[in-house]
Write a structure and sequence with these properties.
heterodimer, A: 260 residues, mainly alpha, 83% helix, B: 231 residues, alpha/beta, six-stranded mixed β-sheet, three-stranded antiparallel β-sheet, 9 strands, 29% helix, 26% strand, disordered C terminus, ATP binding (chain B)
């Protein structure tokens, strides 16, 4: 048996990480193609002040994180549409700023958990949130797939084919915000970027088509979450970093399969 | 027979950051015609295209015939060679397998294995054909074609211009294309629009492309390239 201490808490933790892992992996496949690899990473830091405020006011940290991410994402989208500055540059503007404020605001005892997550103690409600929102992310991203991919290839081509590029860009950023907010519980703000990107870059090394690429990425996300969580539980280590290490291991292994 | 007008452009102005890119452009295009837009680099050809597609803000009026469907063929795509997206997946965004097969046929792709290749790994000529296929799968009435580069590895069969001409004839498509090759304009276009931020000439190529308008367009230096074509 992989999980010797399998009980309700464990089960909730595993369920949460698998769903978030799949959603992060699938969404990550679009992010890598859209050259937004670092956007997820930077955005995850925006979550920190939200978590801090939620802790201060005794609200669910997920909601606090998502609220801040939502504001940041809408602001980034609006500035991007107005100025044509690249998303990465804009996200960079919000990122260090938020991290600094977040570290100042977050109460010390909770800081470590906010930064690195803790999936070993997930409440039922948090697990439910993770499942529902992960399914929402997956279905919305799947529905937007065509629009997102055509506009990745060429915005002009997409608009000429009647794709609502602005709308799909905003929805996509909102999905990223949502998955980052969910991931805070699993791997924490500092490492969530890794859970979005590592499975996707690993899958990209191995896949020729988008279908295989996105499915593989989702699978790597889930496997990283389960294996990482399991190893952490067995060896009594913090799950967040271990999950990310497993995802990184997938990446290094994938290099051997890289198509020329 | 009265030919209907498919596009009417009146007093078109486009500015970027306060700088005038296009000013005072007016012309109209009849249905089923092939129009070539020529002009030097920076003349605003692509901007005119983007305005026609509604992708840039402009002043003036651009009125397409009601319900007209526009297909756009970009010059190239910014895709990486290893982009994990096959030709089949790309065209699958536009329609189902029978439609893809039909479009392949229409653009003269007879090698079915092309479907499974990666979009980024296609040669220039193959990509251009796939992009035409993508455009015609939307059943357009008009095809806007951004500077098709002639003579790239089409396996010695049909050039991209012959393909356009064939689509133009077989499907009765109205075609607007950007070109810098006056030879192409003489051979394939019914009408030509010379552009250098303003409208320099417009009309049938043999009438519009006078040595005077060419001089206005390219300056004295460029004239010698095409003197053999002067009538």
């Amino acid at each position: 048996m992989i999980f010797p201490f399998l009980d309700t808490t464990m089960l909730l933790g595993i369920t949460t990480s698998v769903f978030v892992g799949v959603a992060a992996g699938y969404l990550g496949s679009f992010m890598v193609l859209r050259r937004m690899a670092l956007v997820g990473d930077a955005l995850s830091h925006v979550a920190l002040p939200g978590i801090a405020l939620a802790l201060l006011f005794n609200v669910n940290p997920f909601l606090g994180a998502f609220f801040f991410l939502f504001i940041a994402v809408v602001a980034i989208w609006a500035i991007e549409e107005k100025t044509n500055l690249p998303t990465e540059a804009l996200v960079g503007v919000f990122f260090t700023f938020s991290l600094a404020i977040g570290v100042l605001l977050t109460p010390e005892p909770e800081l470590l958990e906010a930064l690195f997550g803790d999936v070993s103690d997930v409440a039922f409600f948090d697990a439910l949130l993770a499942v529902v929102f992960s399914l929402l992310i997956l279905s919305t991203a799947f529905w937007l797939k065509k629009d997102l991919l055509i506009s990745t290839i060429s915005r002009d081509l997409a608009e000429s084919a009647k794709v609502k590029v602005k709308r799909s860009n905003l929805l996509f950023l909102l999905l990223v915000a949502l998955v980052v907010a969910l991931g805070v519980k699993v791997v924490g703000t500092l490492l969530m970027g890794a859970l979005v990107i590592l499975p996707a870059v690993a899958a990209r090394n191995m896949a020729l088509r988008f279908r295989g690429f996105s499915l593989l990425s989702a699978a790597f996300g889930a496997l990283s979450a389960v294996l990482g969580g399991g190893i952490a539980a067995v060896y009594n280590l913090p799950p967040g970093p271990i999950i990310v290490l497993v995802a990184a291991a997938f990446f290094f292994v994938s290099l051997a399969f890289r198509r020329a | 027979m009265k030919e209907s007008v498919i596009l009417e452009v009146k007093d078109l102005y486009v500015n970027f950051r306060g700088e005038s890119v296009l000013s005072n452009i007016s012309f109209s295009l009849k249905k089923g015609y092939a129009l070539a837009i020529v002009g030097p680099n920076g003349a605003g050809k692509s901007t005119l295209f983007r305005a026609l597609l509604g992708l840039v803000p402009y002043r003036g009026t651009i009125s397409w015939e009601k319900g007209v469907k526009i297909g756009y063929v970009p010059q190239k795509l910014a895709v990486e060679r290893d982009l994990p997206l096959s030709v089949h997946e790309f065209l699958g965004f536009r329609g189902r397998d029978p439609e893809i097969a039909e479009a392949f046929n229409a653009v003269g792709i007879h090698d079915d294995s092309l479907r499974d290749r990666q979009l980024g790994a296609l040669s220039g000529g193959e990509l251009q054909r796939v992009l035409v296929a993508f455009a015609i799968m939307g059943n357009p009435d008009v095809l806007l074609f951004d500077e098709p580069v002639a003579g790239i590895d089409l396996g010695g069969e049909e050039t991209i211009y012959n393909l356009l001409l064939r689509l133009h004839k077989e499907k009765g498509l109205t075609i607007v294309l950007i070109s810098h090759d006056l030879d192409v304009v003489y051979r394939y276009a019914d009408e030509v629009l010379c552009l250098n931020k303003k409208l320099v000439c417009f009309g049938r190529p043999e009438e519009a492309l006078t040595s005077e308008s060419l001089k206005k367009l390219y300056g004295d230096s460029a004239l010698f390239h095409h003197t053999h074509k002067q009538i």
